[in-house]
Design brief:
heterodimer; A: about 260 residues; alpha/beta; 7 helices; B: about 375 residues; Glutaconate Coenzyme A-transferase; five-stranded mixed β-sheet; four-stranded parallel β-sheet; 14 helices; about 35% helix; about 15% strand
Chain lengths: ~260, ~375
């Protein structure tokens, strides 16, 4: 019934994100699509993951979609609820495998801006939220996956502010700066899935969403994207049964995966 | 009087000339002296909210945002601060969502930022506008975790902690309190960030139950509040209910802030309304959507919104009446208990009519 509607870009993002999660991992979950993705992964290919939330919830039992990362669903009958400092310390100490981050801007090295748009910090065009846990997770977590919509504004050549360090200036610069983990391993957008080339640490196309070609992805990007060798694969779309689970069990009210008019 | 070696690049970037504004947040000696000067006796500290705010929140104080933005946050106490017309406060918290609307009324004049906003409810255009208009000055930028480490350092009884957060980011360049250093235990290069222990002037923490001496029990996420209570020079506890001390001793479901930190105990049912109070009431989701989508649009909208919800309300009971009275209370209690799986959830429908600019049902439950 619910599959008559074609898949929308947010549902596709949620599915692609979910596929980044492997079973038995500890997953640090942020607000919005990452919550959808983690819950979808748990209900499908990764039933044994442990979810960790910034407000302290650990491994809640299943419920509906949280309205916020502070929602009781994030700590529903949790065995424990950690204080904030300890929650991030879990990533520092090596007890988080993968985390997800959103961004207002991301550059070719996977550095993130969630602070402001404009070139004057004291008088920005638009002031945004600031870091929240974005910097903490980006600094500490073993593997980060970035997620957002793909426009030239959001993929500029130069960030207006570095909130969170990805691969900094490429090469070994992240390690030399003293940061932990592998940094960003993937960027998931409505245009495609991107990884980072091993030596330069520059953003590279891994696969493109159905209907998107390299030229279009490049047009939506304010810096030069690296092209992989050979044919660029198409990102797999969710099979109907997975889409059904997403729509009926994970986010039935479309809190994070509905687009007005679609 | 201690003197401080602030990060000079950040002072220049933030154009802070008068560094005395920054001092109290890291002035351990004065915080310790304030803690020593308190009456340490076990005694009845109960008073009214208006008396507690009038006595312990002074103009210019560094005040904290506690709970988690809209979870167990003492919103009704912030509203009382606004009604009493306090001026020129610094606000700090991780998150620090609630300082935004206080700027419009001169209550908050200085920001220590970690996160301003309400996640997916929409961006806080009000804060952006007030910043550009010069109504608020940013004194420091943080991540949630780095600020949490600063409060935790105070609770640990340490001058500060070394962190792996913030390294190589621009946050370092906009925070006078933090410094990149070499890890003193390592011979090979190992950059770390020194984060000093943070000592706010005053904190208000809303809890589930408190005895008259100030032993205060929290159920659900404590976030940073145990650490903040240990650090702050002045601590006001507001509680859903006041219980006998024996209840704190025997009922250990949750965590406890010890009475020694506490200056005032206020019985304040619905003290976290319109936020979520674990075990007690769920958010008014529509209220937050209207706050973010409507009130933040213009100064006029914000003035009208806050006149209705704050200045025309005497107390939290007036506020609850506007939300829908007993109907709101019953629905909000059912929602939070069902979410927490303390009520039957099978067949329960969490859906609601969201607030949008085109559709304002004026229903808040």
């Amino acid at each position: 019934m619910s599959n008559e509607k074609p898949i929308n870009p947010l549902e596709m993002l949620a599915y692609v994100l979910a596929m980044q999660i492997k079973d038995h991992q500890i997953v640090y979950v942020g607000t919005g699509l990452p919550m959808v993705a983690a819950i979808l992964a748990k209900k499908t290919h990764a039933p044994h993951i442990t979810m960790v939330y910034e407000s302290g919830g650990q491994n809640p039992i299943e419920g509906d979609m949280p309205w916020s990362v502070g929602d009781p669903f994030t700590w529903r009958k949790s065995p424990l609820i950690q204080e904030m400092a300890y929650s991030f310390a879990q990533a520092y100490n090596g007890y988080v495998d993968i985390g997800f981050l959103g961004f207002a801007q991301v550059d070719m090295y996977g550095n993130i801006n969630t602070h402001l748009i404009g070139d004057d910090f004291l008088n920005p065009k638009t002031r945004l939220t600031g870091s929240g846990g974005n910097n903490d997770l980006s600094s500490l977590t073993e593997n980060m996956v970035l997620v957002g919509l793909h426009t030239p504004d959001k993929f500029p050549a130069r960030l207006d502010f570095i909130t969170s360090v990805g691969h900094l200036t490429g090469g070994n610069s992240r390690q030399e700066a003293g940061l932990l983990g592998n940094g960003p391993v993937a960027v998931v957008t409505n245009a495609g899935v991107f990884d980072f080339e091993a030596t330069s640490k520059r953003m590279r196309v891994q696969s493109l969403q159905p209907g998107v070609n390299f030229e279009l992805a490049q047009l939506c990007t304010g810096f030069e994207l690296l092209k992989p060798e050979g044919e660029i694969p198409v990102t797999p779309s969710p099979p109907p049964d997975i889409l059904e689970i997403l729509r009926t069990q994970v986010d039935p009210h479309g809190v994070f995966t509905s687009i007005p008019g679609m | 009087m201690a003197t401080f070696a602030y990060n000079k690049e950040a002072l220049a970037n933030l154009k802070i000339e008068d560094t005395s504004l920054l001092d109290r947040l890291v002035d351990f000696n004065s915080a310790r002296a304030a803690h020593l000067k308190k009456d340490h006796s076990q005694r009845d500290k109960r008073m009214s909210l208006s008396e507690a705010i009038a006595t312990y929140v002074q103009d210019g104080d560094i005040c904290t945002d506690t709970g988690f933005a809209y979870v167990r946050t003492p919103l009704q106490s912030y509203f009382e601060i606004m009604r009493q017309g306090k001026k020129g406060l610094q606000f700090i918290g991780s998150p620090n969502t609630n300082q935004s609307y206080m700027i419009n009324f001169g209550v908050c004049a200085y920001s220590h930022n970690s996160y301003i906003g309400a996640e997916m409810r929409g961006s806080d255009r009000n804060y952006s506008r007030q910043l550009k208009a010069g109504k608020v000055k940013i004194l420091s930028e943080w991540s949630h975790g780095a600020m949490a480490q600063g409060f935790k350092a105070a609770q640990l009884g340490s001058p500060g902690v070394f962190s792996k957060q913030l390294l190589a980011s621009d946050i370092i360049r906009y925070n006078p309190y933090v410094k990149v250093m070499q890890n003193p235990m390592r011979d090979d290069p190992d950059p770390v960030v020194f984060i000093p222990a943070l000592y706010p002037d005053v904190t208000i923490i809303h809890v589930h139950a408190c005895d008259k001496n100030g032993n205060a029990r929290i159920y659900g996420p404590a976030v940073n509040d145990i650490a903040i209570a240990a650090a702050a020079r002045k601590v006001i506890i507001t509680a859903e209910e006041i219980v006998p001390e024996i209840d704190i001793r025997y009922n250990n479901k949750g965590v406890v802030i010890p009475f020694v930190y506490v200056d005032a105990v206020v019985e304040l049912p619905f003290g976290a309304v319109p936020g979520n109070m674990p075990g007690c009431y769920y958010w008014s989701r529509q209220w937050w959507e209207k706050a973010m989508r409507y009130a933040t649009l213009t100064d006029e909208n914000m003035a009208e919104f806050m006149r209705n919800w704050v200045f025309d309300c005497r107390d939290q009971y007036d506020f609850v009446e506007k939300l829908g009275g007993a109907r709101w209370v019953a629905k909000a209690r059912r929602l939070t208990k069902t979410t927490e799986y303390d009520n039957e959830d099978e067949g329960y429908d969490y859906s609601y009519q969201p607030y949008t600019l085109n559709k304002d049902t004026d229903i808040y439950y």
